[in-house]
Specification:
With about 240 residues, the chain is α/β, with parallel strands linked by helices. The protein has a single domain, classed as Alpha-Beta Complex (Spore Coat Polysaccharide Biosynthesis Protein SpsA, Chain A), CATH 3.90.550.10. The protein contains 7 helices and 11 strands. Helix 3 packs across helix 5.
Length: about 240
């Protein structure tokens, strides 16, 4: 159980948060032939880490897990180690945006706050989730993110430096990303009408001129993309023991 600056705990919150966990990708860059979201890392299947993290929260009314079509109809049995009364399985789409939209359709009406999380970030911590939810409760979308610490260079197609970017204004986006329900539904509805896809849901709000805040994320919440990222997550998990 976590406590915010005002002394409130996640257990004190209303049960009004719906979660869409995106696990519908083909995960071709991770290699190995097996879907990365189903591979074991840090003691359990990658997807199960996120499922259990969100299911442990008292403010979560439902978690929709978006899986590739092949697995949506016949999910792996370990997925049901979670609270099945709050679990829904939805089929993924051709793009990440379509997959999130599929998950949104299955959220109950009582979910007035929506969190979208990538299964590829298995070590998301409850404090980060709290910060996102607390900000969304003010009425404004928010995403977990980290400020850049490296010097960033923009280069041309010949890999020659064009300019140095001001890193103080740049943040690395993470998940979860949180939204008032009506905001994210509208953003996806208008994206579908315009046939637009994006790499994250905040971008769909940005194109509509909707303000999105960043809240502090976590260095633990790295995204597993390449094969070597599995070892990085294992190392982080071991350091927590």
């Amino acid at each position: 159980m976590t406590v915010d600056a005002g002394g409130a705990t996640s257990a004190d919150s209303a049960r009004d948060v719906g979660v869409v966990i995106v696990a519908g990708g083909a995960s071709t860059r991770a290699g190995g032939g097996e879907l990365k979201q189903l591979r074991w890392v840090a003691g359990k299947p990658m997807l199960l880490h996120s499922l259990q993290s969100f299911m442990a929260r008292r403010d979560v009314i439902s978690v929709v897990c978006v899986l590739p079509h092949k697995y949506a109809g016949d999910p792996p049995p370990w997925i049901f180690q979670c609270d099945v009364d709050r679990l829904m399985i939805a089929p993924g789409g051709k793009t990440r945006t379509e997959s999130v939209a599929s998950g949104l359709d299955d959220l109950p009406d009582e979910a007035s706050i929506v969190l979208v999380h990538d299964a590829a970030r298995p070590l998301v911590d409850d404090a980060t989730i709290d910060r996102v939810v607390q900000h969304v409760r003010t009425g404004e979308p928010a995403i977990a993110a980290l400020p850049m610490t490296d010097t960033l260079k923009e280069v041309d197609q010949s890999h020659r430096i064009v300019r140095t970017l001001e890193r103080a204004l740049l943040w690395r986006a993470q998940t979860p990303q949180g939204f008032p329900r009506e905001v994210i539904v509208r953003a996806h509805r208008e994206a579908a009408a315009a046939r637009i896809s994006a790499t994250d849901d905040a971008a769909l709000c940005e194109r509509l001129g909707i303000s999105v805040a960043v809240v502090r994320g976590s260095e633990r919440a790295i995204k597993i993309t390449e094969e070597e990222d599995f070892a990085r997550v294992e190392a982080i998990a071991r350091s927590d023991e």
